[in-house]
Amino acid sequence: MSLGKQTIDTLKRLASDGPAAVAALAGSGDPSGSITVAAETAEARIGIADLDRFSIAFRTLDVRRAAASPGDPRNWLSAHAATLIRSLAFLEEPLAVWELDGSERLAQLRSSPPQRDGDEVIYWEVALRLADQPVATLARYRWAPGMPERERVDYPATFALTGRMVAALEDGLADEP
User: Fold this and answer.
1) Among 5, 69, 96, 102, who pairs with 112 as Cys (CB 3.0-4.6 Å)?
2) Residue-range domain boundaries for the chain
3) What is the pLDDT of residues 1-55, one digit of tens each?
4) 10 sits in which H/E element
């Protein structure tokens, strides 16, 4: 079973367990209220802000894939960033490479153009990191003049959309982009 499908099934199971399960998750000692869904070659970690019978509000989606470290980090990041841009084309705004640093083993993708509401800017960000294992983190951010820093925005999504996002992140980390 794919990681995306396992994510959907896990969220449905958690929702069917009722509010007590969600409250227990929040009181589990994990300050982010996260769940982890593991598959054979990858795992997803979802930072949960809220959950009901049909949808979730998440803070972040992290997907980690078991893979060998690439010989050339810059080429690997470039190829996999392009794959992530294609795989996540269904998001509200298209993504583009914001930063790519082979020596730091990091690629950052952001909405281009971001959503604007007056002076407020809301955008997606994907951080693609090469550590022991490749990791892709998806989150939504908001910034407006006068704010000292951007802030992470909880994103409401159906279980199916969340599973699709997880599957897209997993595809972006595949051995062959």
Assistant:
1) 96
2) 3-172
3) 799 999 999 999 988 886 666 666 554 445 558 899 999 899 999 999 988 888 9
4) helix 3-16
Confidence (pTM): 0.90
- The alpha-helical segments, DSSP class H, found in 62-140 are 73-87
pLDDT tens-digit profile of 67-126?
A: 777 778 999 999 999 999 999 999 999 999 999 999 999 999 999 999 999 999 999 999
Residue 79 CA, chain-centre distance (Å), reads 18
- Whether residue 13 contacts residue 51, with contact meaning beta carbons closer than 8 Å, is answered with no
**Directed axis angle between helix 73-87 and helix 159-172, to 10°?**
150
Q: What are phi and psi of 61, to 5 degrees?
A: -120, 125
